[in-house]
């Protein structure tokens, strides 16, 4: 069952886990934070989450 409560939980956990794991990756060798790269990674994460929501939300005949 893929109800609204589970969708919200998965979305929240996915975004939090994704953001906290992508934040260190977005730093360069000098330790500076690269906003553009971070936003690209976050966008990719959101696309993956959207595709997974689409796959799991389809009604099975």
Radius of gyration: 15 Å
Whole-number mean pLDDT: 85
Q: What is the overall shape?
A: elongated
* Major sheet description: none
Distance between the termini: 14 Å
Estimate the strand proportion. under 5%
What is the H/E string? HH
Number of helices: 2
Oligomer: single chain
- Given as residue ranges, the uncertain stretches (5+ residues, pLDDT < 50) are none
Give the class from helix and strand content and strand pairing: mainly alpha
Features:
61 residues, mainly alpha, 69% helix
Care to describe what's here?
Helix 1 runs antiparallel to helix 2 (35-57). The mean pLDDT is 85. The chain has helices at 4-22, 35-57. 69% of the residues lie in helices and 0% in strands. The chain contains two helices and no strands. The chain is elongated and about 50 Å long. It is an all-alpha fold and 61 residues long.
